Amino acid sequence: MVSTLLLVGLLAAGFVGFNIGGSSTGVAWGPAVGARVTRKTTAAALMTFFVLLGGWTVGRKVIATLGGDLVAQSAFTIEASIVVLAFIGLGMAVANLYGVPVSTSMTAVGAIAGLGLATDTLDLAVLGEIVVWWLIAPVVGFWFGAVIGRYLYPHLDRLAAIEQSGGRLVELDRSGMVPAPRLGPGTTPRELVSTAFVLAIACYMSFSAGASNVANAVAPLVGGGLVEPGPGVVLATLTIGLGAFTIARRTMESVGNGLTDLPLLAAMVVMVVAATITTFASWLGVPISLALSTVMTIVGLGWGRATRTATAGQLARGELEGGVSVDAVTVEASDEVPGIGEERAEDLQSASELFDPGMVVRFVSFWIIGPSVATLLSYLTFVLLPV
């Protein structure tokens, strides 16, 4: 009986990992795939490797938090672990159904907190620390994006603009005694460096996803002593990798070809900021949402880019011309970067908005409702049913 339940638990963990791979791979590698910097199969392979690296190093701290610090390990029986994993998987399915960037970490915390409330094993101090980080992360993401968009983005656009030659980046020169690598036809040093930078950022994003999300798939099993941390990380990585090689092919296509409507440079800025926030929080052992930081950094970047039409004094008086738009981050760089307050609204903006305020409210609402519902349903399940 125990072996059968353990198998069910492993399958439940695998299902969660599989869905994490499908969603996280699209976020991490969609921009690179959309820009034709790498192929989907290569992206999936790199995603799997760096998820393992992130989970094996930083991710162990998040596993310890969810599997023993937030709730006492004694609460994680086989049956309880299966129920918690089922709620995590259900939360992901509902969020995907409504097209909202899923926060697996927040759903996992909610489901585990419900177990802790029902069994009187919840550490409120640990829960409070996690919630505080949930409030800090989007604010930090927004203001980092805003500062970069207002003061740095035009300069980055001039330095890092990628003009793809369409051919091979590097080829072997066999004219000498020893074959040596050289730039491909039409490839410039800037293109080579920029392409390498895009790949490095995607790998960093994959590392961040592993650091934060591996725990969501296996922490209940590790907390109950059903699986050791090392094998748990491997199990999560294999299932995340399976999702990366299969269902993530579609999400990479969606993200890379129009989900965010961001140019590659803006996507890279957002990825670096969001991944850094998530990795730092994971290093502290705090489970945090990569999607939350990503969305709010996009909002901040668009707002900051559009505010270049006004000086600080004009902003304080509410004299910003026009609104925030997609073209606020897609304008092509000129030879000279206009100063703050010198750019024209028509050079930055169009009718289509970078972000819909109503959509932002929808995202934030789900970030609040999701873990709250997971906590309530988990609590009621463990109180009413003999689990």
**Total helical segments:** 14
Strand order, largest beta sheet? 1-2
How many beta-strand runs? 2
Distance between the termini: 15 Å
- How big is the Rg? 22 Å
The profile of the biggest β sheet is:
2 strands, antiparallel
* Basic shape: globular
Give average pLDDT, whole number. 80
Proportion of helical residues: over 70%
Number of domains: 1
Kindly name the structural category: mainly alpha
Low-confidence stretches: 323-327, 349-355
Order of helices and strands: HHHHHHEEHHHHHHHH
Query: How big a fraction of the residues is strand?
Result: under 5%
Question: Could you characterize what this model shows?
Answer:
The protein has 387 residues and is mainly alpha-helical. It has one domain. Helix content is 70%, strand content 2%. The protein is built from 14 helices and two strands; from the N terminus they run H-H-H-H-H-H-E-E-H-H-H-H-H-H-H-H. It has helices spanning 2-34, 40-56, 59-69, 78-97, 104-119, 124-160, 189-223, 229-245, 248-259, 264-283, 290-306, 312-316, 345-348, 357-384; strands at residues 170-173, 180-183. A two-stranded antiparallel sheet has the order 1-2. Strand 1 and strand 2 (180-183) form a beta hairpin. Helix 1 (2-34) crosses helix 2. The longest helix has 37 residues, at 124-160. It is globular and about 70 Å long. The chain starts with a helix and ends with a helix.
